[in-house]
Specification:
Layout (H helix, E strand, L loop, with lengths): L2 E6 L8 H10 L19 E10 L2 E10 L7 H5 L5 E3 L5 E3 L9 H5 L6 E3 L4 E3 L5 H4 L7 H5 L5 E5 H4 L19 E4 L4 E9 L4 E2 L4 E6 L2 E6 L5 E7 L3 E7 L6 E7 L4 E7 L3
Parallel strand pairs: 1-9, 10-17
Antiparallel strand pairs: 1-8, 2-3, 4-5, 6-7, 10-11, 10-14, 12-13, 12-15, 15-16
């Protein structure tokens, strides 16, 4: 039995309700033996990160809430010299405020940078999964309960079944077995606008192909002459644009280390 968080990035509007709800639940509230009060500043046990891709006017923004991943094999627990960090039967990883010596070792090794040091109390702190609420009959942590778009879900891993087959985790290569899953995380994009410099009109219906990283991606320019090659992996691509009556346009070696706006490009007849 293991509790997991499932976050659908496509549904997140960036309202920050989860972040605010966490602060409301934990700032100034002593939930011993689960957690001492969270400081008003300096800590975000749930933090919404804004990701901006591309350049004006071809820009896409998405948001990702990040919190303790309540790992299957938490490295933070391994380095704790006082066994203050434990994993419960339901999968939640907790730091015992009474046992924590405030050495900071756990914070230094956490792959996700979600363990904070409370200098005033000399302890490490992080998301508890609202264990104090769950143990008193609540079904959801405050962050999940506060999400207005249902972008955040929480429950038994088995309950989500097929939903998780398309999910990804952050820094899975670290081998800790993170239990926060993300759906619909957008990849990089290559975008641009094609136009006829003679007629001074955009070109509608041009066929755009990107070849790279062993795959081919296609798009068609819309009524504004714009094209978007979406959900690309990080890599290098050769982009070709073809339109009836126009010479083919090629962009060689386009890197998607960051999303790319190729700008307004003329096509000659």
């Amino acid at each position: 039995m293991s509790k997991v968080f499932v976050i659908d990035v496509s549904k997140c509007s960036g309202c920050y309700n989860c972040q605010l709800a966490c602060k409301d639940e934990h700032c100034g509230n002593d939930w011993m033996p689960y957690a001492k009060p969270q400081p008003q500043i300096g800590q975000f046990w749930v933090k919404v990160h804004e990701h901006v891709e591309g350049t004006i006017p071809k820009v896409k923004i998405h948001y990702m809430a990040q919190l303790c991943n309540h790992c299957e094999d938490p490295v933070c627990a391994k380095v704790c010299g006082r066994s203050a960090i434990t994993k419960r039967e339901d999968g939640l990883v907790l730091i015992d405020p009474e046992e924590c010596a405030g050495c900071g070792a756990c914070s230094q090794v956490c792959p996700y940078d979600v363990i904070y040091m409370n200098e005033e109390l000399s302890i490490a702190q992080k998301c508890t999964g609202c264990a104090h609420l769950l143990d008193n009959g609540a079904k959801l942590p405050r962050c999940v309960e506060a999400c207005p778009t249902d972008a955040m879900k929480f429950g038994e891993e088995e309950e989500f079944g097929d939903l998780l087959k398309d999910a990804v985790v952050l820094k899975g290569e670290k081998g800790t077995g993170p239990k926060v899953y993300y759906l619909n995380v957008p990849g990089k994009f290559i975008a641009g606008t094609m136009f006829d410099p003679v007629e001074q009109e955009v070109i509608i219906g041009a066929e755009v192909t990107a070849v790279g990283e062993g795959k081919e991606y296609t798009a068609v320019t819309d009524d504004f002459g714009d094209f978007w090659l979406k959900n690309l992996p990080v890599g290098t691509f050769d982009v070709t644009v073809r339109a009836e009556g126009f010479k083919t346009v090629e962009f060689k070696g386009v890197s998607t280390e960051k999303s790319v706006n190729l700008g307004d490009t003329p096509m000659e007849r």
